[in-house]
Write a structure and sequence with these properties.
Blueprint: H1 11-24, E1 30-34, E2 43-47, H2 73-81, E3 88-95, H3 104-109, E4 125-131, E5 136-145, E6 150-160
Parallel strand pairs: 3-4
Antiparallel strand pairs: 1-2, 1-3, 4-5, 5-6
The protein binds zinc ion.
């Protein structure tokens, strides 16, 4: 019953992701962290949060504050890079309510539907950055657990004045 090992995320990479969360605030940011397949992550790839455009079929009308959507060129790049030398290892997004957790919507987006056999949508871990109007309060990393047949928290990170 061992939890998946967290991908190592250096503090400087984490701070770059925090800065992205701050620049998107009060909307959610999203993107991914990439690196050699065994880690650590070495780059931050930002995405346009398509949820903000309001044209996503499964969540139209839902403001960017409550969901993130990666699609279009970003989604093509994500799929392409998964087969490359520096694959996406962690998908990140932010929560402007200051709390780092995977919401029900986040879990749905990151999980294949049962008719596809379930399991994670992508072979990546999920980083959530919780920030308010003053600072990044906390961040947490989640991974797919075969034992739990769902996402489980595997690491927590201190916030920062960002
Ligand atoms: Zn979320």
């Amino acid at each position: 019953m061992s939890a998946p090992e967290p991908i190592h995320i250096d503090r400087d990479i984490l701070m770059l992701a925090y800065a992205e969360a701050r620049s998107a605030y009060p909307a959610e940011c999203c993107g991914w962290l990439a690196g050699p397949s065994e880690g650590p992550v070495t780059t931050v790839r930002t995405c346009a949060n398509q949820q903000a455009s309001g044209n996503h079929p499964t969540a139209a009308g839902r403001p960017a504050e409550t969901a993130y959507v990666i699609e279009g060129e970003d989604l093509m790049a994500l799929n392409h890079d998964l087969d490359g030398d520096m694959p996406p290892l962690v998908i990140y997004h932010s929560h402007p309510n200051g709390r780092a957790y995977l919401s029900d919507t986040d879990r749905t987006v990151a999980t294949n539907p049962p008719e596809w056999g379930g399991g994670p949508t992508y072979p990546v871990q999920q980083l959530v950055i919780g920030l308010d109007n003053q600072r990044v309060v906390e961040a947490a990393l989640f991974a797919w657990s075969i034992d739990e047949d769902g996402y489980t928290e595997i690491a927590r990170f201190e916030g920062a004045e960002v």
